Amino acid sequence: MSTPPIPVASQAIAFQAPASPTPAPPPAPSAQQPPRSPLRLSSSNRLRRSVTNAFVSGLAILATVLVLTPLIAILGYLLYKGASSLNLAFFTHIPAPVGEAGGGMANSIVGSGIILTLASLMGIPVGIAAGLYLAEFGRGSAIASAVRFTADVLNGVPSIVMGISIYALVVLHQKHFSALAGGIALAIMMVPTITRTTEEMLLIVPNSVREAALGLGVSKWRTALSISLRTASPGIITGCMLAFARVAGETAPLLFTAFGNQFWSFRLNQPIAALPLQIFIYATGPYDEWHRLAWAGALVLIVLIMVSVTLVRIFAGRGILKGNS
Questions:
Q1: Residue 30 domain-assigned (yes or no)
Q2: Backbone angles phi, psi at 283, to 5 degrees
Q3: With bands split at pLDDT 50, 70 and 90, how would you rate the model's confidence at 40?
Q4: Of the candidates 96, 76, 106, 70, which has an alpha carbon nearest to the alpha carbon of residue 295?
Q5: Among 35, 73, 172, 202, who pairs with 135 as Cys (CB 3.0-4.6 Å)?
Q6: 3 falls in which pLDDT band (50, 70, 90)?
Q7: Half-sphere exposure (CA, 13 Å, Cβ side) for 103?
Q8: Whole-angstrom Cα distance, residue 216 to residue 198?
Q9: Residue 59 falls within a domain, yes or no?
Q10: What is the DSSP string of 153-211?
Q11: CATH of the domain at 162
């Protein structure tokens, strides 16, 4: 017997896909509790943030005042004690004989300029070169670690120890004190600060700058000198000025090297006067006139340091020391 065919209507019903369920509508928000924005701050949080901001700002202002107060007090006292002793003779005359009134520190001002110039000419190039090696060529090497350790140790060496060392190494061989020995002592004191500052400033320079120069075919040493060093020049100049300001007022190294001089002296192989030395001699002397000149000399020394540092920062900001047009 043959099977009877299934009706078409039955086939349609058998193969009809089930209908998808209709999604239920979202529940309507309650009229009593409106939706709350997640970015909206409550009044208590706003008050807490305002109080915290005011408290931290007050601490910052207090810290600034605590830092500036000693500086202003010292500068004000120097102006009070030293300004009245400044006159034309102070800048044009040499020290008067013992027991006589008057005199000045003209030879000491010139002598300090000579010694600091020598120290800068010797210490700044060596410090920058050492920092350049540590940051660009000696990363991870044993020599770089030794140089870095030596610089950190020299930063903590007392200045009088540095003076005694140069006395034994230079003065005893020369058989006399000299401006050159004083310049060498101050230069060695400048090198560690400049070295570490130069290294840190060069490490801040992005590696993409170096890679761009190397990708253009520039040699590594040329990249280090023309790209990395110039990019980091503002920070390096600041480090040089910090080192200069540190050694400008040093007295102990000059006691064993330059020794001082009561007369004019411009020869590098002879004892020479220096402003810190003359201030020390007058401050420890028994005469009131010497004490008055010592306060005036201290004021002049501080002003000279501030003026020199300010001028260098101005020139650096204008791009004169960066090589920019």
A1: no
A2: -70, -30
A3: low
A4: 76
A5: 202
A6: low
A7: 22
A8: 25
A9: no
A10: HHHTS-HHHHHHHHIIIIIHHHTS--HHHHHHHHHHHHHHHHHHHHHHHHHHS-HHHHH
A11: 1.10.3720.10
Domains identified in the chain, total number: 1
In terms of average pLDDT, the best of 84-88, 99-103, 128-132 is: 128-132
Question: CB–CB of 280/251 below 8 Å?
Answer: yes
CA angle 79, 80, 85 (to 5 degrees): 80
Q: Would you say how long the chain is, in residues?
A: 325
Give me 105's structure tokens: 């520190």
Separation between Cα atoms, residue 301 and residue 157, nearest integer Å = 24
Q: CA 268, CA 91: separation in Å to the nearest integer? A: 22
> Are 108 and 274 within 8 A, CB to CB?
yes
How many Å apart are CA 280 and CA 291, to the nearest integer? 10
Residue 263 covered by a domain: yes
Q: Which residues pair with 259 in a beta bridge?
A: 272
Supply the range of the domain harboring residue 172.
84-317
pTM over 0.85, yes/no: no
- Give me Rg for the CA atoms of the chain: 37
